[in-house]
Amino acid sequence: MTADPAAPLIDQPGTGAPRPVGGRWASALTLANLGVWVGWFGPIQVLLALQAKEFAPGHKAATLAWVTGVGAVVSLVANPVWGALSDRTTSRFGQRIPWTVGGVICGAAGLVVLSVAPNIAVMLAGWIIVQISLNASYAALTAAVPDQVPQERRGVVGGWLGVAQIAGTLLGTALATLAGGITAGYLACAVFTLLSVVPYVLMRRDVLLDAGARPPFRWKEFLAGFWIDPREHPDFGWAWLTRFLINLSNSIVTMYLLYYLTDAVHYDGKAEDGVLILTALDAVTLLGTVVVGGIWSDRIGKRRIFVFWSGIIMSVATLMLSLWQTWPGAIVAALVLGVGFGVFTSVDFALMTDVLPKAADRGKDLGVINVAAALPQVLAPAIAAPIVTLLGGYGTLYAVAAVIGLAGTLLVYRIRSVP
Predict the structure, then answer these.
(1) Does 341 score more than 80 pLDDT?
(2) Are 121 and 162 in contact (CB under 8 A)?
(3) What is d(CA 112, CA 366) in angstroms, rounded to the nearest whole number?
(4) How many other CB atoms sit within 10 Å of the CB of residue 202?
(5) Residue of 39, 44, 45, 38 whose CA lies nearest to 272
(6) Relative to the CA of 39, which of 69, 134, 194, 249 has its CA 20 to 30 Å away?
(7) Is the pLDDT of residue 413 over 60?
(8) Which of 164-168, 223-227, 395-399, 407-411 has the lowest mean pLDDT?
(9) What is the CA radius of gyration of the chain?
(10) Cβ-Cβ contacts under 8 Å for 144 (sequence gap 6 or more)
(11) Reduced to 3 states, what is the DSSP secondary structure of residue 302?
């Protein structure tokens, strides 16, 4: 393969000599991210809901909320911590790869625990293991982008990572649905998660940190570093809040989609099959916009306008789920949602890397940013449960989700340093 003259240079492990990063590295990074998303969304989309229904049929929504909520709290802490530790890693394999490997191995082990869980307690323990572990991999893989990709090309790379996210959601849902049961579904996700990271690891392309360049470790400074003062870095704060609100809206939609089809749409068939169909339709339109949106954003050098209009489209799709509670309505909403989420996924990621405070803290700062995607998993059940049971059901729930997403969309114009 001919080297890409526009590609960044990184240290070759063991020599310190630079070499270019091309399409093969980006493809391997995308595949590794795909595996992480499969490990997360096979359980989130189908398997955890089925287990909650099996273990507590009379309290399935509350059980699902409890398990996913605790897992998300763990994720809130794990992601920035792993990112900060990877910033300080001086392994001969690089800063990020050791955390990528350890994360997928332990994450797969957590999926195996879930596959044999006999009760809610073991189910919760397995999901905690998965969240702790896969967040190590995700933090490391995310930090590799600003480490190695020039600012003017992060939109297209963010687009491919968006492909990985939606393809991981689709493939995870497919494996969970078609594998032949809860146990087989978890094992299928575990195997895929392990195998997907192999090409990325074998390339051994990672930034090396000299031991002499690593700052001394002090607990007080380490912990204080996780607070990024929005008064000193206002664009970082507004970008974080934008991502948080739009992800909160999306989390409400996806987390309760199976129950929405069962209880509101009254889907004629297995609800998990309906979730798979809607996820696939969402993927079709998302894949049509995610890379194109990133390339277009890179080409014209603008980010905010793309985030704004993608957020508007996502809010409209969510409102459709509220007002049009039929199977045809769900299909149309899934197609529209994919259009918006595709552009948002790629361009918002590029925008976030553009507002990072310091290059030396990329892993930690991106971990703080990733909290904006994990925290909604904690809050979504807390918001959804009382609305569904006391305030009008799923129509009201998805209307609230649309308003939340719209609020995040409008805040993107408070970011001043990004075109």
Answers:
(1) yes
(2) no
(3) 29
(4) 9
(5) 45
(6) 249
(7) yes
(8) 223-227
(9) 20
(10) 29, 96, 206, 207
(11) coil
